Structures are given as C-alpha cells and as structure tokens.
C-alpha cells in the first residue's frame, strides 16, 4: 500500500482548515505508532484538530486520505523488511522546500512521541536518545540550500535515510517487531 500523494494531502489539509503540513502530520503519526501500533485514527485527529467541540468537520475525501495514511504507515512500521517511506514532497519540488518538509517531519515525530509520553531522551538507549535530540534540532531546522546544489541533494537524501532508519530504530526499541515464524 502506498502513501497518499503529498500534494493531494496538502490540498485536503488546507481545505479542512488544518495547519499541519503532510510531512509534519506523517511524522506525528509515526511518533504515535512507534509507541502504540494500534493507535486509533481518533487520536491523530485529536492532536491535529483539537478537542471535539472545536474540530472542523472533515469530509469523506479528507477522512479517506487520513485513514489511508494511518493504515499504510502502520503497515510500513510493522514491515520486517524495513519498508517505511517518509511522506515528503516529490523530487521536483525546490530543494529548500524539501528540507523544510524534512524538518516538519522531524517536528511531527517529536510531537507524536511526546503525545505518547516519550518526551525524555534520557529514558531511551543512547542511539535512540541521540536520534531524538537530533530530531529536536531538526525541528528548529535552518538549512541554507543556496550553495553547492549537488552536495545539498546528497545531504537531503542522507537526511531522509537518517530520519527513516532512526524512526525504525526507535520503534524497534520501544515496540519490537515480532519475528515471523521460521520453518525448521
């Protein structure tokens, strides 16, 4: 199952009056699911839209995209082949916008983890704590992509992989995957 298209989800979020970017929303969702794989969609909606009385009414298209995002992300985080994909803009998007989205993704991840009670890196292993602190730094991200475009493209690819692997590492520490049964 594939993640929704970034641009489609961005339009739906804006139309619904939600302020989060698709990248931030996906990071937040990963943070929630790292702690509890069966997190219901309602929990995500509480975080992005506020309390029930203030929550905007989401139409069926927006709800379907959010449900698809939730189910696909849940499957990817549980994939024993490490199939997690980050919801970030396409490669034809300007590099600065892609870096900004990666920072949004890191911000969402930290927010989602904190919402699940994981807000102190001291309670994590050294590697997961370092990743958490790095995500905090990225959340404040200030990348200058004006110089050396080719080097920056490579840096962006490394940043994506860093976020992906760090997320999987943290998830494995907090909620280890059960190994598939082996035939003897």
Q: What is the CATH level 1 assignment?
A: Mainly Alpha
Question: What is the CA-based Rg, rounded?
Answer: 16 Å
The CATH architecture assignment turns out to be Up-down Bundle
How many angstroms does the end-to-end distance come to?
31 Å
Count of beta strands: 0
- CATH homologous superfamily label: YgfB uncharacterised protein family PF03695
> Would you list the SSEs in sequence order as H and E?
HHHHHHH
The total tally of domains equals 1
Model description:
There is one protein chain. Helix 2 packs across helix 4 (60-77), helix 2 runs parallel beside helix 5 and helix 2 packs parallel to helix 7 (149-174). The chain has one domain: YgfB uncharacterised protein family PF03695 (Four Helix Bundle (Hemerythrin (Met), subunit A), Up-down Bundle), CATH 1.20.120. It has seven helices and no strands. The mean pLDDT is 86. The chain is an all-alpha fold.
Q: Topology of this protein?
A:
Elements: H1 6-15, H2 22-35, H3 41-49, H4 60-77, H5 95-115, H6 126-139, H7 149-174
Helix pairs in contact: 2-4, 2-5, 2-7, 5-6, 5-7, 6-7
Observed structural traits:
184 residues; mainly alpha; Four Helix Bundle (Hemerythrin (Met), subunit A); globular
């Amino acid at each position: 199952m594939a993640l929704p298209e970034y641009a489609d989800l961005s339009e739906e979020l804006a139309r619904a009056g939600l302020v989060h970017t698709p990248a931030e929303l996906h990071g937040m969702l990963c943070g929630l699911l790292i702690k509890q794989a069966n997190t219901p969609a309602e929990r995500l909606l509480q975080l992005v839209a506020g309390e029930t009385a203030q929550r905007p009414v989401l139409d069926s298209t927006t709800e379907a995209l959010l449900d698809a995002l939730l189910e696909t992300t849940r499957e990817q985080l549980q994939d024993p082949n490490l199939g997690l994909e980050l919801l970030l803009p396409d490669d034809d998007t300007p590099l600065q916008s892609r870096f900004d989205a990666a920072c949004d993704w890191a911000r969402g991840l930290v927010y989602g983890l904190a919402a699940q009670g994981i807000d102190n890196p001291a309670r994590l292993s050294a590697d997961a704590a370092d990743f958490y602190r790095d995500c905090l730094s990225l959340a404040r991200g200030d990348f200058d992509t004006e110089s050396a475009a080719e080097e920056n493209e490579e840096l962006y690819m490394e940043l994506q992989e860093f976020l992906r692997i760090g997320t999987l590492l943290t998830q494995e520490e907090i909620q280890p995957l059960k190994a598939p049964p082996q035939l003897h």
